[in-house]
């Protein structure tokens, strides 16, 4: 009888222990029954149908907070994840593969968060610098080159005038060159947005490049370049006189694979090749317009395409890892985890570099003493990227330095080709949307 009572007590204890513990914020319905199947509730979910006991009808701000928490995981896991992501190559990947996942942000969620922040800030940084490196509507590069050349010519003229005896031949040549470059400067400063000015500005820019090449090499042009120089000089004179040009200049670039500049493929029909050429010509016109006006819209469109393309590139990178380490007996998802963590690291590190560059720009005027240290830290982070990825590959796949280096080099080369191809796709895609 006592044994029977003891068994019954133990059974009650085991039953009690096996019941799921209700969370502190769990509130059952007023009648303590499931709203769906009306069965009794003993936890946050119905044991019969699986429906959540807590109502989804909440204040809107509560829903937003929960959504942000689900996407970005703003909790202590983020802190525990970011530091080893940057400083401990392969640690997060090995922990995840080993099953130790509760303390860290999941790889996919980590990648989404870091990439979103990275591409948003990248657009901001690039567009902020557009006046320095991207704006070509005022032909700033050519104007600067002409002004620099004029300064040099003026110095040479002064030297020739100070010489004793004065070399009148050199002085005459220098004076003519100064007059020529002043004319170039006047022509290239014309408003490019006015349609009639475009041919003159384009021809002048090309002629300036050829002129500067002569000064740099200290010898006259020859062959094709000499013919091109004469043609441009003649056409500029005829253009100013309102005469017909000897030859209509082609676009600044071409994507054709034929001698006449057209694009065609044997496996396509004649109709399809015509459509392809029409599409190529429209892209060239859009590119010409973008590069001779404000390039900010094009840059914005290209950067906007990169997140989607990089997300597609991730599984392809994982396939590369699978091929290179086919004898490691690892699942594809393990390689994908390596890809997610490595890309998260790259994006986060480049983001840090961009921020350091901004701080360095401000410190040049506010705190010039620390500018050198900031620039050193920026360069150190960029150097750390390839080193980190090599160490990560060795620690995750546990192979020797030699084989790791060979595979690392092959993967890196193949991936850089893929990145270049992705950049071309982003550029073409961006052109189609401007």
UniProtKB/TrEMBL annotation:
Residues 1-21 are annotated as: Disordered. It holds the Pfam family DUF3667. The keyword Membrane applies. Keywords: Membrane, Transmembrane, Transmembrane helix. Residues 12-21 have a biased composition (Polar residues). InterPro entries: DUF3667 (IPR022134). The chain crosses the membrane at residues 110-128, 306-325, 345-363, 369-391, 412-431. Residues 1-11 have a biased composition (Basic and acidic residues). The keyword Transmembrane applies. This is DUF3667 domain-containing protein.
